[in-house]
Amino acid sequence: MDYGDIALALALLVGIALTGQVAGLVESAGFEGLGSLVWPVGYGSVVLAAWYVWIRPMDLGARDPDGTDLWEADEESTDPDR
Asked: How far apart are CA 50 and CA 28, in angstroms?
């Protein structure tokens, strides 16, 4: 684990805990409707930040390092008796 992973985990933890704290404070102040809005906005922003920083940079469509296509048919002749 490098410092980037630790920073991201800490940011997610703080984002989740901070969302709960803000929602609780808003609801205790008498704004139940606004408190209900804080949850999806808070958690949605944490998920969006995690996607942007952590998941988006992944190269999920990486090619084979040898440059060969693993899904194309083989050039070899097959046994017709099979």
From this structure: 29
